[in-house]
Amino acid sequence: xxxxxxxxxxxxxxxxxxxxxxxxxxxxxxxxxxxxxxxxxxxxxxxxxxxxxxxxxxxxxxxxxxxxxxxxxxxxxxxxxxxxxxxx
Length: 88
Hints:
The chain is mostly helical.
């Protein structure tokens, strides 16, 4: 094997090694991007779920307050009916 063939073989192996290294890094970076996108999506989904739960909780509180107001109005109505019927 002469020196020119050895140099050509070494250059080929170095180029091949560099391309394989580039392939590994590219694949690793694409996996990182995919995992980061999935993590971001999960964060957004969880935030949306938390917002929905908060809104539902707020509506539950409003419903409880409206029920209390309805009971109070019923008591007032009964009081008016009792007091005005006694006067007639």
